[in-house]
Structures are given as structure tokens and as C-alpha cells.
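ERR on first pass: missing label on line 2. Operator R.T. fixed the label and resubmitted. Corrected input:
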Amino acid sequence: MNWSEFFSMGGYGFYVWTAYAFAALILIFNLYLPLRRRKSVHRLLREFFRIKGQTR
Amino acid sequence: MPKLLKAVGCLLHRDLTVALRRSTDILTPLIFFVIVVSLFPLGLGPEPSVLKTIAPGVIWVAALLATMLSLNRLFANDHADGTLEQMALSPHPLTVLVLTKVTAHWMLTGLPLVLISPLLAIQMFLPESAIGTLTLSLLLGTPVLSLLGAVGAALTLGLRGGGVLVSLLVLPLYTPVLIFGAGAVAGVIADIDVEAHFSLLGAFLALALAFAPWAAAAALRVSLD
Amino acid sequence: MQHKYASPKFFYTLAGQLTPWAATITALLLVTGLYLALFIAPADYQQGESYRIMFIHVPAAWMSMFIYMMMAGAGAVALVWNVKLAEIFASNCAPIGASFTLLTLATGSLWGKPMWGTWWAWDARLTSELILFFLYIGYMALQASIDDPRRAARAAAILALVGVVNIPVIHFSVEWWNTLHQPASVSKIGAPSIHPSMLAPLLLMSLAFTFYFFTVALMRMRNEILERERHTTWVARVLDPES
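pass 2 clean. output:
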């Protein structure tokens, strides 16, 4: 497996790898968003329940 | 049915009368139309061959934008004074009332654009043979713009940033009308048969007449709840 | 009448169980798809190695359309039968669909540059994708502008349905426009003559993206369900099992 040939992609390396990198970026970003949101929702709701419990 | 007809006639008469009293509402989109078209020679230079080539697209896009500007007026005033809710509660089908309002709106907005377009065509050095096509294409197309625009206006009723938001929603939907409307004019200049263009514009109008008032009425109910 | 399967609590638990499976399947499909796409599929006769962008571009384009259809379908269910879960699903589809549309446009541009020498071309597919992107953005903007989540979901559903009816019209119009204005010598960003060994990675990548979509949709829906149902006891128990 000639790695330098693989990375150069017949001279089109920049285009191919940028495209795949962009895809990776999009996939990771869309995965990251709900994970981050989950943390903040949990945090906010815990606070919400804490206050609710106090005013009982 | 006569009751409905009477209601329609009433509504049409009222919308037209009110708008004609507040004539700035009618004139503003029209002046906007004229100004936008005039900007292009200023931006690109007065060379007739250039202007002639871009004329169909420019005039059509300006018509789109002018229609967008006027959409807010379609439901906003009636919404503000509660008339819209009364219309929704009335025994008359909301779809028909919406169609009536859109008709009034087109008569006040679209029709003036159609009528003034020959003047703008001359400004842009459009060959005389194409001016008729331009007017006809706008005559068929502007009602579609009003009908589709009504759906957008109904969806964004009462929202802040309403004007720009409607544009965002509706402009992508306008693209087929733009393609065939401007395409018809460009086709006539290039001596291509444009019967298909007009058939399609007619089809768009028929489809829009059939579905848009219904969708707009549904959207109004969602917005009013 | 709320069906058992349509109950947010039931779905929350179900989604929680399905997500790891969906994620694993996504990962497996991605790995095999990428392996086949980058290492096994042979270079194209005309386009050389640059055609490998197709393995991202085409599945992304399919997803952009597929997700819009799902969004419109779920919106219809929400409007007609008042199903809350359908509302939640529909509104969470949009950012993922918009992302795939953006990916299609970007990879289309990157594929086109070595082929045609320009970073952008108004060919039929890219132009249609661009308009689809605007439709997604409009949908998301409308939702964001309405505070009441019920009105937001129902208004967005109507917009999605209007959009879905328009999409074939737009496609057709753009195709027509394209053939009129492009000289015949400019070829589309077409798929190269498909070699059978190119089909497998294409299918695998499409499936990978599909399972990815479901994974992310499930995750997003779980978050929204928790938020929406925060006044219920089951949510309180989820967050604080001792209460």
C-alpha cells in the first residue's frame, strides 16, 4: 500500500480530503450538539426540580 | 351560495376601498419596483446590449421583491383590529375569504406592476416584440406570487421580523415562476417557441388557485389559535 | 387519545435503548463504507481519484431529500392526528437535513473544481440543492421565530408540506432552466460510469448516513421530550431517582 500515492489521490488530494474532512466535521458537529444540550437540559431541570421542591 | 357571494363582494369592496384610501400602501411597492429596475443601469452601465440581455430577469426579480414587500399588508391590519378572527369565526369558508383578500391584494399590488412593466421594459431596451410577452408573463405570474405569498404571510402573522422572514420562506417557492416567466421573455428575444412557458405558468396559476387559499386558511387558523 | 406508543414517556425509554444500537450500526456501516470507498473501489477511467468525493456527495444529497420528506410526513401526522411525538420528530429533523444539504453543496463544489475549474457551477443538481437549503433555513427560521412550541410546530408543518409539494416543481423547473442556459458541452457533475465495485460503498455510505440520522434524531428527541414534559413525575424520577 503506497501511502504517499493514497494521500495524493492522483493529484486531487486536496479536494478529496477536504470533502471527507468536511463530512467528518458535519457528522461530529451534529453529534456534539445534542450531547451538549443533554448536559444543559439535565442541569437546568435539576435546578428546576430543586426549586420546585423548596417551594413545596 | 348567494350569502357567500354577498360576503365575498363585501370583503372585496372593503379591502379595495380601505387600500385606496391609504394609497401609500399601493404606491410603495410600485415605486420600489421602478427604483429597483433603475438601479441596474446605474450599477452596470447604460450599454443597451447589456441591459437588454438582463432585462427579463431584472424586471421579474424586481417584481418578486416588490410583491414580497407588500405581503405584510395582506393580513396584518385585519389581524390588528380583530377582523381576521371574526372572519375565521364566521360561517363563511375561510378559504374563500382568503381568496377574496388575495384577489384584492393582487389588484392593488400585482396588477399595477403588470401595467407599468412596459415602461420599465423600454427603459431596459427590451425589444418591442418582447414587451407583450413580458406583460403577459407578469399577468399570469403575479397572481401566483400573491397566492403563495399569502401562505407565507399567514404563517408569519404577528411575528417580529415578519417582513424578512416571509421573504425567506416564500422566495425559494417563487423560483419556478421566475424561471418560466423570465424564461418566456428571454425565449421570445431568442426566437424560441415559448408556448410551453405559458402553459406552465398557467398550470402554476391553476395549482396555486386550487391549493394556496386552503393552505393559507389552515395557516391562519394555526396562527390565530 | 394518546396511543401507548405515542406517549412521550414510552418513547423516551425506547429511544434510550435504541440509540446505542443505532450508533453502533452507524459506526460499522461508516467504517466498511469508507474502507470500500477509499481503498477498494478502483479509480475512475475519466475522473481518476477525484470521483471518490461521490461517496460523500451522493449519499448526502439523498439524505437531504429523504430527511425533508420525513419532516413533511411527520408534520402531516402532527397536523392531522395531533401527535406530539410527530411534532418533536419533525422539528428536530431540520438541522440535520440542512447539514446534509450543506455537505452536498460543499462536496459538489469540491468535486466540480478539478473537473470544471470553477468552485461553483449552476448545474441542475447543485442549484436544486441550494434552493432546498433555503427551504430548510426558512423552516428553521419560522420555528425559531414562534415562541409557542405548538404553534411553531404546526406552522412549520404547513410550511414543510407546501415545500414538499413544491420540490418536484422546483426540480423540474431548474432542470429546464439548466438545459436552456448551459451549452451542451458542459456535462453535469455526473456519476462516472458505475463500476459494480462502486455501488457497494455508495449503498453502505447511504445506509450509514441514514442510521446516523436516526441516531442523532433520537438523541435530539430525548432532550426535547425531557424539556417539554418537565412537569411530569416521570421526568422528575429520571433526573433524580431518589425523589
